[in-house]
Amino acid sequence: MVLVLLGLIGVAVRLDAPADGTVVSFWQVDGAIVTVPDPAASQGLATGDLVTGIAGHRLADGLGGLTPPVLGEQLTYDIVRNGPRQVTVRVDQVDPYPLLVAGWGNLIFVFSLAALASALYFRRPEEPATTPLLITAAGLLGSTLAHEAGLPALALATGGPPLWLYNLNIIGVYSIAWGAALAFALELPRDDRWRRRSLLTAAYGAPPALMVAWMGIAVIIAPNGLRWFDLVYAGTTVTVAGTLVTGAVLGVIAYRRSRDSLTRSRLRWIAGGSIASALLGLAGWHLPEIITGQQLLPAGAIGLSGLPFVLGIAVALRRHQLFDIERLANRSLVYVTVVAVLAAGYAGLVALLVSGLSLSGTAAAALAAAAAALALAPLRNAAQRAVNQLMYGHRDDPAGVLARLGTRMQAVILPDDVLPAVVETVAQSLRLPYVAIDLAYGADSFRVAAEHGTPIGNVHTETLTHHGAAVGRLRVSERGRDEPLEPADLELVRSLAREVGPAVQAVRLHQDLVRSRAEVVALREDERRRLRRDLHDGLGPALAAIGLKAGLAAREVPPDSTARGLLGEIGTEVKASLGDIRRLVEALRPPALDELGLLDAIRSRAATLTGDVSIDVSGSDWAGAPPAAIEIAAYRIAVEAMTNAVRHSGGTQCVVSITVDDDAVEVMVRDDGHGLVPDRKPGVGLRSMQERAAEVGGTLSVESAAQGTIVSARLPLSLGGPS
């Protein structure tokens, strides 16, 4: 209410003060350019005159100082109109009717916005965005009232309440309104990360604070009061433009990040209202004036172009699912683009024909209009395709989408990367928030194999088949709860499903192969561990007992008997067999793994490596019995990586980290050496590490860091592939 009250006080003071029939439009360093709303009562002044002095008082020497004249008094004005001149002006009270005619559209806009904000504030008290909207509407109403009442040139010479009240509204109240508008942009998405008190306080205070700082700077650089006002009003324009851009950027970010359908619908409605207002303002006033020099609609009605924006706010905060906003936004973007391009092309072609070919204005305009008519249909089609691609991706080009998908799948090297590439391509091609592929296991069992994004609305499912058999399913999310997929989208998804089916079957076969190999390796290592246990704990002690008994028996036999010789041979053969068994046991599986565990076995092996590299081993071990295949693979990879670090890295430290969780074992070996040589071919050690990781369904990467080399392996505890 205070903001509106300041505007009303400014209007009251303006109507009560002596006036000269002018309104200041622009400021210059030596005077002010004025507009005369009522030319019939101009008294010698005209729109566009530069007023430099009043009653002998030069405005460039300072504002204020002239004693306010009484009504009916005659004053001499120094003006510039095709050269310096003087005119006599009679002081009288202002007539409000010409001012209303000049700005009635702006008044309708701000009163409509204020009425809407008040209704929402009292009827939707639970909605946080209504408070900054009400402050915005109040500030725009108060400042617009003062702006449409205007500032007469006489007030520059007399100063006093008319001057400072006008500028208090135009600068102060106006900047407060735009600070609230920025807070409205933060409150609208209903995101708690943006609704923190610190951010809202900064939003409310940023435009007023910038204006206060700029006014202080303007005092220093401005040579006089006229120039100061000129700089301050320019700063107001920059502040408003910056606020609009910031609000638009916040809206785009909020729309892309939000997964709430209500929030996204709100933002679309406000964006649609903004686009419609911009389109109406361009088509009704700005473009006709640029092209023909005349506005298509009355100048005083230009404020009506903001009503679609008010309507967008009303629907966004009251009835967010009332109309097909997607179609409105699509058509608005198309026609804005077509009108802008045609207008620019028309103006450029007219200028080229007049200046380059010396044609008359009428002939140039006729030729340019004919060219615009010929270009309308193809331009409209091109704009429609571009807007559709922006909103719906390449839905209108199914052949291109299929070709792009095929190219992407051919470019993939590893089978495990095929399905992630497919879902990413589909999501990007159709501008979908979520795409996933599930692989079929059994009759009705599916497992997620790859997904991209997060679902927003309902999820549509297409079955993936290969030679008539279901091998998986493709799931795509709607663009929003109020944005169902259209028939064109569904048809393209079905076409993609037919193409993806064979690729999914190939991935399933690859995973089956990996799983089978991992099972074979696991069985092999389990059998090796069993054989080692049997040899070490069964056959080995049994042979040792046989050798011991043979030795004891030899003591009871005479030295020169044949039996004693045979018993000695038996003891020798038993010792040799025990050596063979010991070597066989060590070849089957490193004994340290069973005796010490994985971590201590790696530490024991690290202690045997000689060199200048200090090795530090840390991590976690299994709580129970570990899978034999995974344990031996982790041990071999860690030992090979440590050996390479000691022999080839040229560093001084090597860190080995073993992490065991419920899904996998992670092995990381990092050294501080010189790193890998570029374009170096993989050696035997690197290939063996990769093979050991691959045969249990794991992955291994070797890369050079800022200093040194990092070997990282992830070995899944479940058979068949990475977890």
Find the CATH topology of the largest domain.
Pdz3 Domain
- The percentage of residues in β strands lies in 5-15%
Number of strands: 15
- Helix proportion range: 55-70%
Kindly report the average pLDDT value: 79
Describe what you observe in this structure.
- The protein is of the alpha+beta class.
- It has 4 domains: 2-258, PDZ domain (Pdz3 Domain, Roll), CATH 2.30.42; 330-392, no CATH class; 520-588; 596-716, Histidine kinase-like ATPase, C-terminal domain (Heat Shock Protein 90, 2-Layer Sandwich), CATH 3.30.565.
- Helix content is 60%, strand content 14%.
- It has helices at 2-16, 96-123, 130-149, 153-158, 161-187, 197-221, 225-257, 261-292, 307-318, 325-356, 361-392, 398-411, 418-430, 487-555, 562-588, 591-596, 598-608, 628-648, 684-695; strands at residues 23-28, 31-35, 50-54, 57-58, 74-80, 84-90, 434-440, 446-453, 459-466, 469-477, 614-619, 653-660, 664-671, 699-704, 709-716.
- The strands form 3 sheets. Strands 1, 2, 3, 4, 5 and 6 form a 6-stranded antiparallel β-sheet that branches. Strands 11-12-13-15-14 form a 5-stranded mixed β-sheet, covered by helices on one side. A 4-stranded antiparallel β-sheet has the order 8-7-10-9.
- Helix 8 (261-292) runs parallel beside helix 10, helix 14 (487-555) runs antiparallel to helix 15 and helix 14 packs across helix 18.
- It starts with a helix and ends in a 7-residue tail after the last strand.
- The model is unreliable at 319-325 (pLDDT under 50).
